[in-house]
Amino acid sequence: MGNARRNLIAWRAMIQPAREPQSDAFVFFGATGDLAYKKIFPALQSMVKRGKLDIPIVGVAKSGWDLAALVDRAKKSVTEHGGLDEAAFAKLVSKLRYVDGDYGDKATFEQITRELGGATRPLHYLAIPPSMFPKVVEQLESAGLAKQARVVVEKPFGRDLASARALNATILRVFPERSIFRIDHFLGKEAVQNILYFRFANAFLEPILNRNYVENVQITMAESFGVKGRGKFYDETGVIRDVIQNHLLQMVSYVAMEAPASTDAEAIHNEQAKVLRTIRPMSVENTVLGQVKGFRDEPGVAATSTTPTYAALRMYVDSWRWQGVPFYVRAGKSLATTCTEVMIELNNPPQVVFKEAPPKMGNYLRFRLNPKVSIALGARAKTPGEAMVGAPVELSVVDLAAQRGQMDAYERLLGDAMNGDPTLFARQDVVEAAWSIVDPILHGSRPGQGDGALYEYEAGSWGPKESDVLVEPVGGWNTPSD
Description:
With 482 residues, this protein is α/β, with parallel strands linked by helices. The protein is 35% helix and 19% strand. The protein has a nine-stranded mixed beta sheet, covered by helices on one side. A six-stranded parallel beta sheet has the order 3-2-1-4-5-6, with helices on both faces.
């Protein structure tokens, strides 16, 4: 090999980030819980099937179970959520261990150490309530299980800005930021990642995605189902903590951020943090909260609950690009349909050539994230006949074949965490910037019929009609339809 070739290889090694070592074991706390049943076991089976998981797997819980009981539950889990693959499941079981014990008991963590064998770089998944994070993190440190390890924590990351900062401080005392993976499964979805990709991979979009051409941006996350037996959890959480502070503000950041310097995780997170810091903190005047009729009758929900199951927010991004453009975000339970959609509506063209003056000319960019994934451009085309008049048309990009066989969000994210790739996880400052936006309405008075009151709405509707006031200046909500 010549000197020039050797020098080139050495130079590339210096400028390229070092490859992170892969985790050599997977430990998940809360192994008998709902999240493990619905998401983690199916993801683990898929990883095994794809040949991406061949390490010890240790489930931890305090349920009075043994390994046989956990295997039985895992089998029911994968059968119900995705389908049982006999060969992959058998291999998964061969790697599975179980530790039954209290999270505050030193003996529990001594048993985890024994089950790990010689593994030195475990990935610890805390599929447990956030209130238990500090106890587990401290026990991991005491047992020597935090060295060279990584930790995955589930949302919500705190209940407000103050608790998020306290939680981050607790975890950062034991794990460095590069080893902390704050999981938001929404970011693992292909459709969400496509917002970022489509924006910056297509040159025709950049000149128009700004205050000069965009009239408004609307993001809707509608769910036709209710709390599904999670009444107690939801009564303590509410729609803002459940999906707006995390899922929807992450989507806002993808729509509004500037182009990152690269696809490196730090570059993307830097732009997310930057744009979230420019969003004005929410106020009562820009917020409408609602509660679906019958919510207080759910098991575990207080009879006098004021927890919102619906929220509509009008946001402003005070950046050079977006100054003055309203961003409308709404989410709710028991609405008319289940759908998540981003609609970027453009200004009407000047009415000097074709003097058509409908309220909306139908120029927009739309991202449909579920249930049918699509990217669409709204335009106008001439209708047949002698008159020079047009009608709205939609140019849609839908690849149903490409959607089949995709990795589930949890499978993708677990694999990334094991590989030490933080790109699709939330960084501490991004989480805290998002909490800063919604904190005032979490701790302030409710809008509506007096302090503490919510607007009630019927199940199967689009939420309280009072939210229509927010969007009157832009002609109303762009309600998703089939």
